[in-house]
Specification:
With about 150 residues, this protein is an alpha+beta fold. It has 5 helices and 7 strands, in the order αβααββββββαα.
Length: about 150
Amino acid sequence: AEMVRAVAREGGTLRFIELMKFGPGARLFPTEFLPADEARARLSRAFEDGADDGTEGTTQYVAFRDGARIHRVGFISSVSHPFCAGCDRLRLDSRGRLFPCLREGGGVDCAAAMRDGTIDRTLGGLIAGKQPPADRWTERRMFAIGG
């Protein structure tokens, strides 16, 4: 609750993202994972109420009443409530590889596709071929793929 208040005092909106099972998170996951529903429940106990306040992209927002103030908090629940079916995002890493998912181990060489004129087909194929990754997690660190 104090973090929500501190961010609100600075004019921001706090968003919680669930710990994912890759990079350093893989080691921490068994003991440190907190589902978004539990985070929301904890905040609901700290504030007067929490009403759904819409969804934007991958984030579900909740409005918590704190006296006369309303604090909008976002929850990204990629593990406990996967949103793969509605995801239209692609990730580009610093080496020019395009990935259909943070959890994807491979990637497409975007620069090569641009050079050989197949970039439109490549992008279309990546988007059309997006599928839920089951329980697959990459070994890569999240910052290496633009997460």
